[in-house]
Design a protein that fits this description.
RALGAPB, 1316 residues, alpha+beta, elongated, Rap/Ran-GAP_sf
Length: 1316
C-alpha cells in the first residue's frame, strides 16, 4: 500500500489487497484506528501483543490506513508517524519484526508515501497541517541517512529508492497534476535533497535504477531546484574523487553536499561516507543524469547548468594549487594535476557547443560558457593543449571581437575572464594582440559601451585595463612578432601594428573618460608601467604621462572634490615611483619636473587659501602630506633643482605658508560638537611634516649621499670618537665640553680641542649638532692669517728690534737726500722689511753688513766678557738630563712656529713701539679652558643678551651623554625588512619547506635580481640599518637599499650562511613582506614554508618569453590601496625590480600603520629631544649662564641647577604619536629623572636603563653599548688596588712635573740674560 503514482513510474507494484478496514464506515474506521494506535503507542511490551508475523502484518495494515485518512484527522496521523519513527530508529520493536525486517520496512516506506497523496479543498489551516505532516515524513526519511548500508538489503534499498523517486516525481512534474501546488513550492527542495542523498548512501549500482533516475530527471529540468541539486551533488562527488585521485591534501575526505538554503530554512552540509569505488561510479553517472544542458528550454536553467559546470571545472583547475606539497610516504594514483585536454573532453563539450550554437535569448548562459573555456585555457598553464582546441578557442575570440554588436555578452565574458591570458604559455597566443587592442580601445575611449551589455560598464573597463597592463612590456620585448596569417588580418598588418601608440592612446585618452575611482587607480598604475617600460625608448611618452598626472592633481578644487582622496593619493604615489628616475626624465624633457614641482607647490598654496569643503580633516591632511613628501622626494634626488631658482622659490613659499599658518583657536567640548568643528584647518601634524621637509630641503638637497655612503644619513663623528682622538682623562673631559639646547629641536655639543692638531698644527673646536633630521659635525679653526702666505712673518713678541735696526732706519732715511715723497718712503719701508725677513732665526741675531762694521765694533768689544759667561752657562745647560733637552727643543720649536702664524705690523709707528706689545696668549694653558668655543659662539651671535631665550645650557653629565647615544640610536629614516626566498624547480612540493631553505644560490636571473633590487653589503662593516642580522650567525653579506628617506634590508635566504633551518625560518618569518622567486611551475602556497597568514607574498616566476610574471598573495588587505604593482603583472626585468621594491616598501609601511606599530623617526627624535630638555636643562640666570662660559660650575651646582622640570609648559605633547611611538619614548626615559642626579646612582642603574630601552626595528640591540664601556667616568667601577696604583703613579708624575718646572725657570732666566 503506497502512493498510486509510484506504481505508474517505478517497478514497485501494489501487493494483493489485504485491507480489512476498507469497507468500514469512516467513523468506525477512524475510531478503530485511533484506539489501536493509541494502545500501541502506550504499550511498553509489544511481544505479548504481537506474537507472530501475521499479527505484525495486521497491525501494519491498520497503521497504514491512518495515513489515508483526511487531513482533518491529523492527530491520528501524528500518532502513526510517532510509531513508525520509533520503529525505524529500532525502539520498542516486537521481536517478530526481525523475522521479516526488510518486508516490514518496505511496508512502512510505502505507508509513509500516502501522506503526500493529493487532498482537495483544504483550508489554510489544514494546508499548514498537511505541510507539517509531510515535513515529519521527510524527517523520518532523513533519519535513514544515519543508518549503515547493512540496515537494509539491496532489494529493500531499491524499493526505498523507487518510493522516493515516485514521491519526488509527483512533486516535480507539471504543477498541480498530482500534488497540490503549495506542497510543491514548499517541499520540492527537501524531497530532491532526500532523494539524492539516500541514493548515494545506498551505493546502488543497479543500472536500471540509474537509467530510471535519468529518465525521470529529464522531466524535472524545468525546475530550478533540480539544476541546483544536480550541480551541488556533482560538485561534492567530484571533490571526493579529486582526493582519491590526487591525494588527501586535495579535495575532501568524504562526499560533502552543500546546498543554498531556501527561505526560513538552514541547510547544513551533508557528509556522506561511501567507498571510493562507488564514489567514482556515482560521480560519472550523476554527471550525465540531466543530459546535455544545451537541450534545456529555459534560459535561466541553462544559465544555472553552465554555472554549475563552471564550478566543477574551477574545482579541477585548482588541483595542484591548494596544497602543492606531499608527505613523503604518500603515493599518487595519477599525476599531480589533471590535464587540460581531459577537462575539455569531459566538460568542454557542452560549453563549446553552447558557443557554436549561440542560441538567441540564452546570452547569459552562453557568456558563462565563454568564461568556462577562458578559465580552462588561461588557468591551466601546465597543460599543452591540442592545436584543435586552441584553434577553436582563438576562433571564438576573434569572431566575437569582430562582431561585438551581435555578441555583446560574449565580448564581455571574454574580456572579464581573460585578464591574464597574455601571461600564459599558449602556443600562437600573440596572434590575438591586435584584436584585443582594438576592442580595448573601443571600451576605454568611450563614456558608454558601443554595444549592449547587462553587466556594469565600469567592471568591463576595469578588466580591459588589467589586460592592457600585461600588453605594455610586449612591444619593447618583441621587435618582430612572427604571427601566422589569419582570415581578415594579414601578417604584415600585425607586424606593422603600432603597439606603443595604441597603448598610450588607450591609457592617456581613456583616463579622460573615466569616472570610477577604482578604475582611476588602475589607470595611474598602468601609467607607471608604461613610463618604466618606455623611459629609455620613447622619450615622448614620459612627459605626456607626467603631465597627465599633474593636470589631475593640480585640477581646480571643485573638480578634485568629486574624487575620493584615496584616488588623489594614488596619483601622488604613482609620481613617487618616478623619483629615482630624475636623470632619465630630465633627459626626455628638461622642463617636465620643474613644471611638476611648481604646479604641486601652487596646489598647496591654493588648498591653504581655499580649503576643500567636502573633504574631512584627516583626508585633507593625508593629501597635503603626500604632496609635501612628493616634492621633497624629487628635490632631494640629486642637484637638478638648483638649476631652477624660480621653482625653488615656489617650493619654499608653499612650505613657508604651511609653517606660518595660523593655529586653530582652542575650543570647548561643547563647541567641538558643533558643525564648525568640521571646517578644515592646518593641523599640527601637517605643520610638523612641513617643518621636516623644510629641514630636508635645506640640509639634504645636493648633499646626499654623504661621503661615508648611502647607508649613512648622519656623520659618523661622536663625542666618543673625539675623546679617543684627544686622549682625555676621565676628570678632564667635562671641562672642555658644553651642551646647549637651541630652540626646542636642536642640541649642540661643543668640544674644545686644547692641543694643536697633528696634521695642520691648529687649534680646533668641534661642534656636533643633533636635531629632528639627524646628527651633523663641524670643525672650526680660528684663522688670523691669509689662506696663502709665502713670506715669513716676523714675530714681534719673540724678537725685539735692536739698536742697530733703529740706526739702520735713520741712516737709510738720510741717504734719501731729504726726499719725503710717498714712493721713496714706501721703498724704504719695503727695504727694511726685506732686511728683517732675511735674518737668520736664532736666539741671538746680529747683522754683519760691511758698511756698518765700524759702528758696532765698539759695542762688540764691550760685550766679550758677557758672551764668555753666557757660553759657560750654555755648557751647563747642555749637561742637564735628557728630559730638560726635550723640553728646551719643544719650547724653541713652539716659538719658531709662532713666528709663521702672526702678522708683522704694517703701520709706521710700530718700529718704535715693540717694547709695548702685550705678551702672547698661551693657548695650551690648562687653566684657560673653553676659550675657542666661547669665541665661536660669540662670533655666531649666539651669546647676545637679546638671544638668550633661544639657547639654553644642558647639564654636561654622564647621563646626558648616555641619553644622547640613545638619541643617535633612534632611526633617522623609515626602516623596512623584506624577506626573499628562492624556490627551485620541484621544491614547491617540499613538505615543511626544508628543501627551499637549503638553497645556497639561485639561477642567473635570480642572482641579478638580488644584486639590482639593492646592493650587497658587508654586515661587519655596515653602518646603516641591518634588520637585526648578526653577521656572526647569519653570514657577512646581505642585500641593502636606501635613499634619503628609507632604508631597506632584504633578508635573502640564499645569503644566510647558516645550516640552522629553523633560524632561517625565524628570520624570514619576522618580515611582513616576503618576495618569492619561484622556478617551479606549480602555484606557490605559503603553507609549504609554514609562515603565518598575516603576510604579503610577491611571487615572481620566469616566463618562456624572457619576461616575468608577478602574482601577489595578500593576507592583510593592504595591497589594493598601496600600488603601483598590481596582482598578475607581466613585466620585464628592469620594470620588475623597480615596481617590486617600491610596492613592497609601500605595503610594509601600510602594515605598520594598520598594526599600530609605526615608528615615525622624526616624531620619535622630537620626543626624545623634548625629554632631554625636561631632564637636563640648567636653570641659570644671566650671570650664571655667562660665568659658565668662562670658568664652569662645580658639579654640585650643576646638579642643583638641573632640577627636574615638571611644570605643564615643559611637558611633551605626544598626542600625535602612535601607540608604538609612545611606548618607545616611555621605555627610553623610564626612571631617567631618578638616575641622572649622581654618577654613582647612574652607574648602578645604567644596566637597567639599557635593558629598558625600547629597540625599534631600526635598532640593533647588539649595537647599543653603554657609553662608559670605553670611557669609564666612575671611580666606583675600579677596585681598591687600581686606586692605590693610580695614586702612586700620580705622585710620581707630580714629582717629575715639579722638576721640569724648576728647569724651565732656569731656562727662562738664561733667556732673559741673553736678551739683555
Amino acid at each position: 500500500m503506497f502512493l498510486n503514482h509510484i506504481s505508474q513510474v517505478t517497478p514497485n507494484q501494489h501487493r494483493i489487497k489485504t485491507d480489512v478496514l476498507v469497507r468500514f464506515p469512516h467513523a468506525l474506521k477512524k475510531s478503530v484506528i485511533s484506539q489501536i494506535l493509541n494502545y500501541l503507542l502506550e504499550c511498553s511490551n509489544l511481544d505479548n501483543l504481537i506474537p507472530s508475523t501475521f499479527h505484525m502484518k495486521w497491525f501494519l495494515e491498520v497503521t497504514g490506513q491512518a495515513f489515508a485518512l483526511p487531513i482533518e484527522e491529523h492527530q491520528i496521523i501524528s500518532v502513526a508517524l510517532k510509531i513508525y519513527d520509533s520503529w525505524i530508529l529500532g525502539l520498542n520493536l516486537p521481536s517478530v519484526f526481525d523475522q521479516k525486517k526488510n518486508f516490514f520496512y518496505q511496508e512502512i516506506f510505502g505507508h509513509l508515501s500516502l501522506i503526500f497523496e493529493q487532498r482537495k479543498n483544504l483550508t489554510k489551516e489544514l494546508c499548514k497541517k498537511h505541510i507539517e505532516l509531510c515535513q515529519a515524513v521527510i524527517s523520518i526519511f532523513n533519519r535513514i541517512k544515519s543508518k549503515d548500508k547493512d540496515f537494509l538489503s539491496s532489494d529493500s534499498w531499491t524499493y526505498l529508492l523507487n518510493i522516493l523517486l515516485g514521491i519526488t516525481d509527483s512533486f516535480l512534474r507539471d504543477e498541480g497534476t498530482i500534488i497540490e501546488p503549495f506542497l510543491t513550492k514548499k517541499l520540492s527542495v527537501h524531497m530532491l535533497k532526500i532523494l539524492f542523498e539516500i541514493w548515494l548512501i545506498s551505493e546502488t549500482q543497479d543500472l536500471r535504477s540509474w537509467e530510471l533516475l535519468g529518465t525521470l530527471a529529464k522531466d524535472w529540468i524545468h525546475r530550478k531546484c533540480t539544476i541546483i541539486q544536480w550541480s551541488s551533488t556533482t560538485f561534492g562527488l567530484l571533490n571526493r574523487v579529486i582526493s582519491i585521485l590526487y591525494g588527501s591534501f586535495e579535495g575532501t575526505n568524504a562526499v560533502t553536499i552543500s546546498l543554498p538554503s531556501p527561505p526560513n530554512t538552514t541547510f547544513k552540509p551533508s557528509v556522506i561516507n561511501i567507498t571510493d569505488e562507488k564514489v567514482i561510479f556515482s560521480w560519472e553517472k550523476m554527471l550525465n543524469i540531466l543530459g546535455n544542458p544545451n537541450d534545456f528550454t529555459s534560459p535561466k536553467n541553462f544559465y544555472l547548468a553552465m554555472k554549475g559546470i563552471r564550478d566543477i571545472v574551477t574545482l579541477l583547475l585548482r588541483v595542484g594549487n591548494k596544497q602543492d606539497y606531499r608527505k613523503t610516504n604518500e603515493t599518487l594514483i595519477l599525476s599531480d594535476h589533471p590535464d587540460g585536454n581531459s577537462i575539455i573532453k569531459i566538460f568542454g563539450r557542452w560549453p563549446i557547443e553552447a558557443v557554436f550554437k549561440n542560441k538567441s535569448g540564452f546570452d547569459e548562459g552562453t557568456s558563462v560558457a565563454y568564461s568556462i573555456l577562458c578559465d580552462i585555457f588561461t588557468s591551466h598553464q601546465r597543460s599543452h593543449f591540442l592545436e584543435e582546441y586552441l584553434y577553436k578557442f582563438y576562433s571564438f575570440i576573434v569572431y566575437s571581437f569582430e562582431n561585438e554588436k551581435d555578441f555583446p555578452e560574449a565580448v564581455c565574458s571574454i574580456i572579464n575572464n581573460t585578464e591574464t591570458i597574455f601571461m600564459t604559455k599558449l602556443k600562437g597566443l600573440f596572434v590575438l594582440i591586435p584584436y584585443y587592442l582594438k576592442i580595448i580601445n573601443k571600451i576605454l575611449l568611450n563614456n558608454e559601451p558601443t554595444f549592449k551589455i547587462t553587466a556594469p560598464f565600469s567592471s568591463l573597463r576595469r578588466s580591459a585595463l588589467l589586460i592592457l597592463k600585461t600588453l605594455i612590456p610586449l612591444p619593447n620585448h618583441f621587435n618582430d612578432v612572427n604571427i601566422p596569417e589569419i582570415d581578415g588580418y594579414s601578417r604584415e598588418n600585425i607586424q606593422n601594428f603600432q603597439f606603443i601608440s595604441t597603448i598610450r592612446t588607450a591609457i592617456i585618452n581613456g583616463f579622460a573618460k573615466e569616472i570610477d575611482p577604482e578604475n582611476a587607480k588602475i589607470f595611474f598604475w598602468n601609467m607607471s608601467y608604461l613610463l618604466l617600460a618606455t623611459i629609455n625608448r620613447q622619450s615622448t611618452v614620459v612627459p605626456l604621462i607626467i603631465l597627465t598626472l599633474q593636470k589631475f592633481i593640480c585640477a581646480p578644487t571643485e573638480i578634485q572634490e568629486k574624487w575620493p582622496t584615496d584616488v588623489i593619493i594614488a596619483a601622488l604615489t604613482t609620481l613617487r615611483s618616478f623619483t629615482s628616475l630624475v636623470d632619465e626624465i630630465n633627459d626626455c624633457s628638461t622642463q617636465t619636473l620643474p613644471n611638476l614641482i611648481t604646479g604641486l607647490s601652487r596646489v598647496i598654496k591654493i588648498h591653504i587659501t581655499n580649503l576643500p569643503k567636502n573633504w574631512k580633516q584627516n583626508e585633507f591632511d593625508s593629501v597635503i602630506i603626500e604632496i609635501i613628501n612628493l616634492i621633497c622626494d624629487f628635490v632631494c634626488e640629486g642637484q637638478w633643482i638648483f638649476l631652477y631658482p624660480n621653482t625653488v622659490n615656489e617650493i619654499l613659499q608653499a612650505i613657508g605658508e604651511i609653517v606660518n599658518a595660523k593655529k586653530k583657536p582652542t575650543e570647548t567640548k561643547k563647541e567641538r560638537k558643533k558643525k564648525d568643528e568640521d571646517k578644515l584647518t592646518i593641523t599640527s601634524r601637517v605643520k610638523f611634516i612641513a617643518q621636516i621637509t623644510w629641514f630636508k630641503i635645506l640640509r639634504i638637497a645636493g648633499n646626499f649621499p654623504l661621503s661615508p655612503g648611502l647607508s649613512n644619513f648622519s656623520t659618523l663623528i661622536t663625542e666618543e670618537k673625539i675623546m679617543k682622538k684627544i686622549g682625555f682623562k676621565k676628570n678632564e673631559f667635562m671641562d672642555y665640553i658644553r651642551f646647549y639646547l637651541f630652540g626646542n629641536d636642536k642640541i649642540f655639543t661643543i668640544i674644545e680641542y686644547p692641543f694643536k692638531d697633528e696634521t695642520d698644527k691648529k687649534y680646533k673646536t668641534y661642534i656636533i649638532i643633533r636635531d629632528l633630521i639627524g646628527r651633523y659635525s663641524w670643525t672650526f679653526t680660528f684663522q688670523g692669517l691669509p689662506l696663502e702666505n709665502k713670506t715669513k712673518i716676523y714675530e714681534p713678541n719673540n724678537k725685539k728690534k735692536s739698536i742697530r735696526d733703529l740706526q739702520l732706519n735713520s741712516i737709510t732715511k738720510k741717504n734719501n737726500n731729504g726726499q719725503d715723497q710717498d714712493q721713496d718712503q714706501d721703498q724704504d719701508q719695503e727695504k727694511n722689511k726685506n732686511n728683517l725677513t732675511k735674518k737668520k732665526e736664532l736666539e741671538i741675531e746680529f747683522d754683519y753688513q760691511s758698511e756698518n762694521i765700524d759702528f758696532f765694533q765698539k759695542e762688540i768689544e764691550n760685550k766679550i766678557q758677557s758672551i764668555e759667561s753666557l757660553i759657560n752657562l750654555q755648557k751647563e745647560i747642555e749637561n742637564n738630563d735628557q728630559t730638560l733637552k726635550e723640553i728646551t727643543n719643544e719650547e724653541i720649536n713652539n716659538k719658531n712656529e709662532s713666528k709663521n702664524q702672526n702678522k708683522d705690523d704694517d703701520d709706521e709707528g710700530s718700529d718704535f713701539g715693540n717694547s709695548l706689545r702685550p705678551k702672547q696668549i698661551n693657548r695650551e694653558d690648562k687653566d684657560f679652558k673653553f676659550n675657542e668655543s666661547r669665541l665661536l659662539l660669540s662670533n655666531f651671535g649666539l651669546l647676545s643678551i637679546s638671544d638668550k631665550k633661544q639657547i639654553h645650557s644642558l647639564n654636561n653629565c654622564d647621563e646626558l651623554l648616555f641619553t644622547l647615544k640613545k638619541l643617535d640610536k633612534c632611526s633617522e629614516r623609515l626602516c623596512h625588512s623584506i624577506g626573499v626566498i628562492y624556490i627551485d624547480e620541484g621544491q614547491n612540493r617540499c613538505y615543511n619547506g626544508e628543501g627551499i631553505f637549503e638553497n645556497k644560490h639561485g639561477n642567473e636571473d635570480y642572482e641579478d635580481f638580488i644584486r639590482q633590487i639593492g646592493w650587497i653589503i658587508n654586515l661587519k662593516k655596515h653602518n646603516g640599518y641591518n634588520g637585526k642580522l648578526d653577521w656572526v650567525k647569519t653570514g657577512k653579506y646581505a642585500s641593502y637599499f636606501s635613499n634619503y628617506n628609507t632604508e631597506v634590508i632584504f633578508k635573502v635566504a640564499t645569503l644566510l650562511k647558516t645550516e640552522d633551518i629553523e633560524l632561517k625560518k625565524q628570520i624570514l618569518g619576522s618580515c611582513f613582506i616576503v618576495i618569492v622567486w619561484c622556478n617551479d611551475e606549480r602555484h606557490f602556497n605559503p603553507k609549504c614554508i609554514k609562515f603565518n597568514k598575516n603576510r604579503i607574498f610577491f611571487i615572481i616566476k620566469p616566463h618562456p618569453t624572457g619576461l616575468f610574471t608577478v602574482t601577489i598573495e595578500d593576507y592583510t588587505g593592504v595591497v589594493h590601496n598601496s600600488g603601483p604593482l598590481m596582482n598578475n603583472s607581466f613585466l620585464n626585468k628592469s620594470t620588475l625590480i623597480n615596481l617590486v621594491r617600491i610596492t613592497a616598501i609601500n605595503c610594509n609601511y601600510q602594515l605598520y600603520l594598520k598594526n599600530k606599530i609605526s615608528v615615525e623617526p622624526y616624531k620619535i627624535r622630537a620626543g626624545v629631544i623634548k625629554e632631554i630638555k625636561r631632564n637636563f636643562l640648567l636653570k641659570l640666570n644671566y650671570d650664571e649662564f655667562y660665568s659658565y662660559l668662562f670658568s664652569g660650575l662645580q658639579k654640585e651646582v650643576l646638579d642643583e641647577k638641573s632640577q627636574f622640570i615638571d611644570d605643564e609648559s615643559s611637558k611633551s605633547d605626544f598626542s600625535d604619536l602612535s601607540i608604538g611611538e609612545r611606548k618607545y619614548l616611555k621605555k627610553t626615559f623610564s626612571d631617567s629623572s631618578d638616575s641622572r642626579r649622581s654618577n654613582s646612582e647612574y652607574s648602578k642603574n645604567k644596566n637597567n636603563l639599557s635593558n629598558k630601552f625600547h629597540y625599534s626595528e631600526g635598532t640593533d640591540k647588539s649595537d647599543i653599548t653603554d657609553f662608559s664601556e670605553n670611557y669609564s667616568y666612575n671611580s666606583e667601577n675600579k677596585s681598591e688596588n687600581d686606586k692605590d696604583s693610580q695614586n702612586k703613579n700620580q705622585t710620581k708624575k707630580d714629582s717629575e712635573i715639579r722638576n721640569i718646572n724648576i728647569k724651565l725657570e732656569k731656562i727662562d732666566a738664561t733667556k732673559k740674560k741673553i736678551k739683555k
